[in-house]
Amino acid sequence: MAEVISLMDIDDKEENHSLKKSVNKGKNVIAAGDTPHPKATPWVEKYRPQSLADVAAHRDIVDTIDRLTSENKLPHLLLYGPPGTGKTSTILALARKLYGSQMHNMVLELNASDDRGIDVVRQQIQDFASTQSFSFGAKSCVKLVLLDEADAMTKDAQFALRRALQSRCTRFRFAPLEDIHVRERIKIVIEAEGLDVPESGLAALVRLSNGDMRKALNILQSTHMASQQITEEAVYLCTGNPLPKDIEQISYWLLNESFSVGFRQISDMKTRNGLALLDIVREVTMFVFKIKMPSNVRVQLINDLADIEYRLTFGCNDKLQLGALIATFTRARSALVAAAK
Known about the structure:
Layout: H1 43-46, H2 59-70, E1 76-80, H3 87-99, H4 103-106, E2 107-111, H5 118-130, E3 135-136, E4 139-140, E5 144-148, H6 155-165, E6 169-173, H7 179-193, H8 199-209, H9 213-226, H10 232-239, H11 244-256, H12 259-273, H13 277-288, H14 295-313, H15 318-340
Parallel strand pairs: 1-6, 2-5
Antiparallel strand pairs: 3-4
């Protein structure tokens, strides 16, 4: 196999003697030399799959990579997709299969958000790639360069890598995990940790994860640290998300109360429960899909809610946007009445 520089979406850092510095972009990292107490170990690391066979989902992709590796036909790879979908687990499991105990000598990890300039390509990557490879038996293995958040690299650095990567990579997209895969993996952790999680709490974990396994495990561990029993309410309180019953109540006010009454009641609940209006809008949008209404009214309502969410994302005034939210439902109510006549 020819020497390879592979672009991978990597979301954790293991001990790596070739790494010049370790960074944490909101991801769970155990830096080299750290010996955290077992109870303090992030569960996303503690329960990360150690082999390709253990990866929770995307079996078609993982099995293809596994087969190509076994046949010594592994191409340049580009793994992409949202966070917590198995990109890291897959590539690190692949590295273990390729290198075994020599993994840390054969893998260079760089965070492209910090090590992002042209000098990284010209110096660190090229220097690492040009050093002698270790031999395993009668053959010499390729080296692996992992670039985290490569889209954050400077244009010059991306251009320098473009010919080596873009035209030569076999691309695999890691979609958000299906609920059944998140649920199965969470159950394994629950059993291993001896946690008290009723079905409602498990359902809340799966729902709030949105197909992100890392998020699911982080919520599970955080809730466990705050509550002995991981109930639905404990999960929602820990994450700050509105409870489903609160969203049902807010939706009822929006559909039935006057502007002034709805504004006062939603404001009171928002303050009392420490809710963010952005989260309320997102949850109400999902609730709209459950309401029986003409398709044209639903589409207009969802589009209007999307506009409010967009404005809130950019820091628009909460009171103004709450008024816009109530006005949006007032128009929808009028359209529903007209459609019923």
